[in-house]
User: What shape does this take?
Amino acid sequence: MDFTLKQLQVFVAVVTHGSALAAARAMGLSQPAVSSAIAELEKHLGTALFDRWKKRMVLNERGRTLLPMARLLLVNARDLGQMFGAGKSQVGGTLRLGASLTLANYVMPDTLSGFVAAYPHVKVEVACRNKIGIISQVEDFAIDIGVIAGECRRPDVEHRPWLTDELCIFAAASHPLARRSRVTPADLSAAQWILREEGSGTLELFLKALPSGTLPLRTTMEFDNLESIKRAVEYGSALSCLSRMAVKREVEAGRLRVLPTPYLDLRRDYYFLVHRKRHQSALLNAFLSHCALDGGTLAHSVNRPAGWRGGRKARHPKATMRHKGVRPD
Assistant: This one.
């Protein structure tokens, strides 16, 4: 069985980009070279990996079985190259990170800026997805590490705690509820809502936190974009629920107002996700160590509470977000 890493790279590229032509452009190869590599791989494996129909290539069952295995082989080969190519004293290479929308917009930019400054030979590629999308990418080895809100109970995925955040219900500053000292469950039930899309960790926690009598909500719009939600709420009459970090600037500017709902527990934890079969490379360990120690970089949004000891946390009512002691083991 003499298939090559190059053939596996071509196979993954065809799946990722959707066609042999698109994969050829991405890899700087000719389309015949891509088609030849796929044909040789199928010959060595003794099975077709795609169903061909007219000019389309659709991944079949055998191809879907091979895909995560091929990605894992390529990840391990890349880690080997980085380990011995960069030298023992130098961390380098490419880290593929998947982050939920809130983290990608409001936490990771500062964290990653500090990380690449500390490790100048590192490149980070960030994919923004909702919770379900990130979990799927970790399972398929499409990314090296994911960061999501809420735990992941998939057997092949290890989750490690990082930060604690809190959601809030908010409205336009001109909304009638914005002048209330208390907003009741009945008010929430009667309101119109603009919410995150299905599969979002934010939506999942919000719906779980609501009293049963408020459901179902009158949802008028769904977005997978945080800025779109904020603008739609600001210029409309609906309510929404996002991280306090996401609405911080608009609230400070007086355009949005956080509604008082003390009876709702909207705290949530962020977790790193790593596939259990994935090799713990020096680059991945360096990133986890940086996140665990990065108190200064996130000072505007992350506070270490009193009693913080690197692996255990104490709830602190004034801390919107704080470290939970990630261990790079």
Q: What stands out?
A: The mean pLDDT is 84. The CA atoms of residues 49 and 63 lie 4 Å apart. The domain at 165-267 is CATH 3.40.190.10 (D-Maltodextrin-Binding Protein; domain 2).
